[in-house]
Specification:
This protein is mainly alpha-helical and 227 residues long. It contains seven helices and two strands. It comes from Cryobacterium flavum.
Length: 227
């Protein structure tokens, strides 16, 4: 029976991929080849001082990817170490140095390896401003690297492989964010929690009491499922 269930799951995944690979693939190709920038994107480019029409060599593209990853590690580490003074910390103390560094590296490198229980370790500020943001940024950086590699093979003698900041922004705003919003709505409709209400004490059928955590679960799981 287990073998049949595994086979059915594999067949379902294969069917879904067969149905969406072409429209989704075409949409992703359009995202990274379009010459048109959305208004919100143009505002962001002006804010960070980037010319979206400029092209980068692979060396410059790589430096940009490493720079945002380095900043991501520092910010996520800092949020964890300052957790005790952040709003919605749920009374949790600052996360220890070693665990903070391990978690920061893990999420920035798109590994998401966790050696702790989030329900009793991290408040909502760290989850939303730190982990959730890195779920988007690290996934978008991975897409940038893949797209840059494709461009490098397609135009060996061009000397440039696009603009990292344009690719990063489009990957988040045009692909990852819309997919995650749809997935989060589906998960919430199915009963998954999405709140900042902290812990709720309930009485079980046996008469005992139990504290159940709330939290922005649907939004987190939606992004994790996109990865």
């Amino acid at each position: 029976m287990d073998n049949w269930l595994v086979a059915l799951q594999a067949a379902t995944v294969a069917l879904v991929l067969a149905l969406i690979y072409r429209p989704l693939g075409d949409y992703i190709a359009l995202i990274y080849t379009s010459r048109r920038n959305l208004r919100i994107e143009r505002g962001f480019y002006r804010l960070i001082g980037v010319d979206p029409r400029s092209e980068q060599t692979w060396q410059s593209y790589l430096r940009s990817a490493l720079a945002i990853s380095f900043v991501g590690v520092l910010l996520l580490y800092g949020l964890q170490r300052l957790q005790a003074v952040l709003p919605y910390a749920l009374g949790f103390p600052a996360i220890p140095e070693g665990l903070s560094f391990n978690t920061a590296i893990s999420f920035v490198t798109n590994a998401n390896w966790q050696s702790y229980s989030p329900d009793v370790t991290m408040g909502y500020s760290v989850q939303l401003l730190g982990l959730a943001v890195q779920n988007f940024v690290s996934a978008a950086v991975g897409l940038c690297v893949a797209i840059a590699l494709v461009r490098a093979f397609a135009a060996v003698r061009a000397g440039t492989i696009g603009n990292f900041w344009v690719d990063l922004t489009r990957g988040i705003l045009r692909l990852l964010l819309p997919l995650s919003i749809v997935a989060a709505i589906v998960l919430i409709a199915a009963g998954m929690i999405q709140n900042v209400s902290g812990f709720t004490t309930i009485t079980t059928l046996s008469g005992a009491t139990q504290s159940l955590p709330g939290g922005p679960v649907a939004s987190q799981e939606a992004m994790r499922s996109r990865r």
